[in-house]
Every structure is written in structure tokens, then in C-alpha cells.
Amino acid sequence: MSHDSQGKEGVVNMSGLSLDTSLLWTAQEIFLYPNQENLAEQKNNIQKLLDWVIGEGLRLDNTDVWKEALVSGTYNLEQLEVDFTALFINSFPTARAHPFAGWYEGEAIIFGPSDNKVRQFYSRYGVSYDANNQIPADHIMVELEFLARMAEEYERTGEILYYTAMQEMMAGYFENWVFKFLHNMETYAETSYYKSLASILVCLLTKLRKELKGVA
Questions:
Q1: For residue 149, with 0-12 CB atoms within 10 Å meaning exposed, 13-18 middle and 19 or more buried, which class applies?
Q2: Among the four residues 23, 48, 130, 200, which has the most C-beta atoms within 10 Å?
Q3: Are strands 2-3 and 127-128 parallel, antiparallel or unpaired?
Q4: What is the pLDDT along the chain (216 residues), one digit of tens a residue?
Q5: Structural domain boundaries of the chain?
């Protein structure tokens, strides 16, 4: 995903989102396949999200279990790999938590109409997505990346264009499916890691949605 500047379209007199936008990048990286090479970074990511939960005064099921596992180092990579595969890639009769929007719009295959629709939306804001990319444009990781990029640009420039992009992404695309996806993720995950992540991301994205709607 690459971004071309579209020039100023008005500046918002705001200091930015109160939500730490780096958390959106953290959330995006959580959906990388877990392996020995990235496990340490994944551990840092979940710690960052857990710290945010504590800072927000939230109390969620399973977070204490995983926090204890982080401190003690007792995590099982093989279990995470199996859970990741069953949730997001393949299980019988189908993946348990499909990570792309089209599934929730009745599309049984990836790279369908939803993928094309989201690509066109990205292009309106100067963001191009490689047509040869093996991950569909309506995948959870790609949509989170778009939100993170727009949030960064908004904080850097204060230009209303980027705030509008986040609003349109959330209201017109993201919230239509992501909470259903996270519900499935929490329901069907077999590890406390992915159950906890689903709960945390519901809180994180609910907060972002409220901010973008101007709800205190």
C-alpha cells in the first residue's frame, strides 16, 4: 500500500485523535502469522495492547491469563499457529473467523466485488494497493493499515482530508463487518491469546469509532 499526497483541503484546529495511533499499527501486526522469527515482536504487541487496556481502566476476560503468560514466558508457539490457521485460513468446513469484509457481504471467495470496492475507495484518497498482492484489499490487516496511515497523516498535517478518510472508512466499510469478525474470533479461538486480542480490539475500535463520530 502506497500513499500519494493530495495537497491541503482544509486544516482542522485539533491536536489529533486522543487514541494513540501507533495502536492501530500494533493491531495490524497482530494478524501476521505467528512464527519463531516474529514471536518476540508479537509478545511486545500484546503487551502494548494490554497496557492500553489497563490504562483505560478496562477489565476483560482472559487478559490476566495472557499477561501472566507474558511475564512467565509460558506461551506455546505450536498452539498459536494451529489457532491462527483454524481461525483465519482454513478449518472444517470453513475458517472460523474470516478476516476479509467480502465474506460478511455474502462473498464466498476472496478478491471479489468487496475487494474491488475497497480498492476504489483507497484510490480516492491517493492510496494505491498492488493488484498483485496476495492479500485482498478488504482484509483486516489492509483496512487497519489504511486507518493507521490516515491517522498518522492527520496528526502530522491536521488536514481534514485524512480525518474524513478515517470517518468514511469506519462508517462506510470497516464497522459494517469488523465487529462480526471479532465476535467470531473471540467465540471460536482456542487460545487465550486470540480470545484476549479479540476482546481488546473490540474496545480499541469502539473507542476509535466514537472519536470519529465525535462522541465523548
A1: buried
A2: 200
A3: antiparallel
A4: 766 655 444 444 344 578 899 999 999 999 999 999 998 888 888 889 888 988 988 877 766 666 666 655 567 889 999 999 999 999 888 899 999 999 999 998 889 999 999 999 999 999 988 766 789 999 999 999 999 999 999 999 999 999 999 999 999 999 999 999 999 999 999 988 888 889 899 999 999 999 998 754
A5: 19-212
Nearest to 100 by CA among 184, 21, 167, 39: 184
What is the C-alpha separation between 104 and 178, in angstroms, rounded?
Answer: 9
Separation of CA 192 from chain center: 18
Contact 138, 100 (CB under 8 A): yes
- Measured between alpha carbons, how far is 121 from 172 in angstroms, rounded to an integer? 10
User: Mind listing the pLDDT tens digit for each residue in 94-147?
Assistant: 899 999 999 999 998 889 999 999 999 999 999 988 766 789 999 999 999 999
**CATH (one of 1.10.3480.10, 1.10.150.130, 1.10.10.10, 3.40.50.410) for 19-212:** 1.10.3480.10
CA atoms of 109 and 113, how far apart (whole Å)? 10
Residues contacting residue 15 through CB under 8 Å, at least 6 positions apart:
none
Q: Which helix (H) or strand (E) holds 2?
A: strand 2-3
